[in-house]
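To: structure desk
From: M.T.
Subject: fold request, one chain
Message: Could you run this one when you get a chance? Sequence is below, nothing fancy, just the single chain.
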Amino acid sequence: MSTLLAQISDLHIGVHDTDSHTACVRAVERLLALKPLPDAVLVSGDTANTGAPGEHELARELFAALPMPIHHVAGNHDLFARRAEYVTSVGPLRLVVADTSIHGRDDGALDVPRLAATLDADTPTIIAMHHPPIRIGMPWIDDIRLQNDEELAALLRTRSNVLAVLCGHVHRTATGVCGGVPVHTCTAAYQQAVLEIGASEAVLGDDPPSLLVHAYLDSGELVTHVQPI
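Reply: Done. Structure tokens follow.
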């Protein structure tokens, strides 16, 4: 039986922004319509828009219909009282949630030695973080990506059991490679970024939102599907 990890991202929920509430409700409805239901849901950062406590409280209410575990990643718009880092299991997978947020900044950094201490050499592992450790080709987001990506790449080259790095932040689905490991960013559930290679400023468009479904197959392979919302 395959293990399914669904991923949504960048909800930017504002207490008075009813459009963001609607976008979240639609994402939850789409998750509930998946067959079979995912074993867990990953929210890869920027759940809140300003980090105000009321935004995260509202998010909990909007997610209440989901019966499976929900794993949150800290984004640059999320303000948590402590670093949101932990290790959990999704079926046979180890899910390592890393906090790349830097207070008061939009770019990110990773405590790579701390991450290394959470990894072993055998268990199939997925690493989740908000800031992508790859260039997307659009300077507006590349300038605020993970800043110590080369340090992470060096670590990943020593861990062949890491199957993927899952990120948000880009407001688009994109894929790349860091240290030989696939990197996937998830399209925003609310307010998608226009694809314009070389763009120096973010432009929001009307592309459809989507989520990702990462399926860990019985063969030991991880495959990622893009599912429109």
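Reply (cont.): The mean pLDDT is 95. Let me know if you need anything else for the meeting.
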